[in-house]
Amino acid sequence: MELTVTSLIVPLGIVLFALWRWLRAPSNRKYYKNVSGPPTLPLIGNALYFSSTSEILDRMMKCIKDYGGIFKMEIGPIQKTIVVADYKIVECMLSSTKELTKSEGYAFAIPWLGTGLLTGDGPKWKKHRRMLTPAFHFKILEQFIDVFESCGNTLLKKLEQEVGKDSFDVYPFITLCALDVICETTMGISINAQDDVTSEYVHSVKEMCRIIMERALSPIQMFDLPYFFTKNYRIQRKALRILHEKSNSVIKHKREELEKKPKEVIEEEAFTIKKKKAFIDLILEATVDGRPLTQEEIRQEVDTFMFAGHDTTASAMSFAIYCLANHPDVQKIAFEEQQAIFEGNRTPTYADLQNMKYLEKVIKESLRLYPSVPIYGRKAIEDIQCGDLIVPKGDTVLIFSYGVHRDPKYFVDPEKFDPNRFDNIDGKFPYSYIPFSAGPRNCIGQKFAMLEMKSVISKILRTFELQPAVPQHTLKLVSETVLKSLNGIKIRLKLRS
Fold first, then answer.
1. How many C-beta atoms surround the C-beta of residue 202 within 10 A?
2. Which pLDDT score is estimated for 17?
3. Is pTM, for the whole model, over 0.70?
């Protein structure tokens, strides 16, 4: 009897809560008289139309076709959300220095990341951004090439086992390699994700990435109260315990090492950059307003690097490999560039990676068609006017980078994979290409990501000939925390002689 009563009370409470939020939400119809969008239903808005991560990209593209580069949508009993793929509005939004903060969707990552660089705002974000920027100086990034190499060598051994198969999914291999890279470069430890696929830490990272996106698209789970009654909440609690314990353990160990080191040695290492350091070492030595960061602040930034630095890069590398496999003419040029750079089997230098100009164009074009983050969310903290559009305080704007990248006004034949198009981009429309976002809140780690991608893809290209899967594989794109393919990213491999 008690179970029956509870099973009735909880859903009823959730419905009443949703109704309360819907009735409380201020009307903003006057602002959007000239903005169209798909029809809504009471309480749930467009939740049924945009409920599937596997359909959201196609449906957003359809809305652009039906309603233009700006349309409105609503998920649950909340205020209107404006989706933007119009260049002028995108430029206005992303170049703003004061009117926007991250949207509510990013709040679902706060239990994991706190208010680190990705989710934080205001003065704290500015101070931490300024503090962390030197960590991405080329002299620091140069030290990570050995990490890219060692993790890449493990990847090659795993891929060799797939040679000769008609088809295999390359994404799981790439994402574990990227996780190994980000753990070693961020925390200075090896978790051996490629060799230990059952790792609790690896599993917890994947679960949190999944939960964050599911909450963003659920009219029920987006609110904390009903979310506390879900299975995802129980999974999240366990995952966070594992993730935070690992980060805190590493921070504690690194802090103890630092405290034992003489001050003059620390100063010498900071000046000469002789000793290879993980990002955590640099964060431990940094100060904000003359004080070192607290344990919690360091943990938040470390976890932010872990979240933002592995899944996005894995997605980008996997799609680039898929594009190379399915465009042999492009692959031939990319391989010839590798042959020209390398004589014999040696570790690439920083200069080698910088000289991979054509491979960089391949990666850029792949990111244009398959941006790792296809949708960026921003929230207005005051009324914003961009041309004729006024976004009222509190409303959310979704920057639809996937749609921006397919605008024929800026990319001729936008569905075609053509790395050479980047020879002709003159920089007049910088906000037409935003795989790393743009403006003040662009991706701080984009140079790191490009170096890692070049290093890993270069090793794969020099070892294997990439071929299309048999039968021909067609991607089924899905927008989770990053862009993925629901049916995998399948190719074939042949060892080069």
1. 21
2. 53
3. yes
Mean pLDDT is lowest, of 131-145, 273-287, 329-343, for 273-287
437: helix, strand or coil:
strand
H and E: helices and strands count for the chain: 19, 14
Range of the domain at 247: 2-495
Do residues 410 and 429 lie in contact, with contact meaning Cβ atoms separated by under 8 Å?
yes
- Dihedral of CA 361/365/366/371: which sign? positive
What is the count of structural domains for the chain? 1
How confident is the model over 91-102, as a mean pLDDT? 74
Q: From the centroid of its chain, how far is CA 175?
A: 12
- Burial readout 178-200 (b: 16 or more C-beta within 10 A, e: otherwise): bbbbbbbbbbbeebbbbeeeebe
Ramachandran region, residue 33 (left: φ > 0; alpha: ψ -120 to 50; beta: rest):
alpha
Which CATH number does the domain housing residue 78 bear?
1.10.630.10
SS3 380: strand
User: Residue 109 carries which side chain, given as an amino acid letter?
Assistant: A
pLDDT per residue as tens digits for the range 187-207: 888 888 899 877 888 889 889
Identify whether the C-beta of residue 492 lies closer than 8 Å to the C-beta of residue 467.
yes
Tokens of 122: 């205001």
493 contact partners, CB below 8 Å, separation of at least 6: 159, 162, 163, 164, 165, 168, 464, 465, 466, 467
User: Which is nearest to 139 in space by CA: 274, 324, 284?
Assistant: 274
Token code pair at residue 169: 């999914």
